[in-house]
Amino acid sequence: MKKKLIAALLVGLLVTSAAGCSSKSPADSKEEKPTTAQPTELAAADVAEQGFDYYDGAMQYKDVVAKLGPIPILDKEIKLGYVCKAFENEFWRMQKEGAEAAVKPLNDLGIKYSIDVRAAQGETDEQGQLAVLNDMINKEYDGILLSPISEGNLVPGIENALKSDISMTVVNDAFMPHIGVTVGAWHLEAAELAAEWVNDKIGGEGQVAIVQGLPKAPPARTRTEGFKNWFTENSPNVEVVAIQNADWDRMKAKETVDIWMKQYPDLKAIYANNDTMAMGALEAVKAAGKLDQVLVVGTDGTSEARKSIKDGELAATVDSFPYYMSQIGTEMLVRKMAGQDVPKVVYSPQAVIDKANVDVPAEEIIGWTGFLAK
Question: Which family does it belong to (predicted)?
Answer without folding.
Answer: Belongs to the bacterial solute-binding protein 2 family.
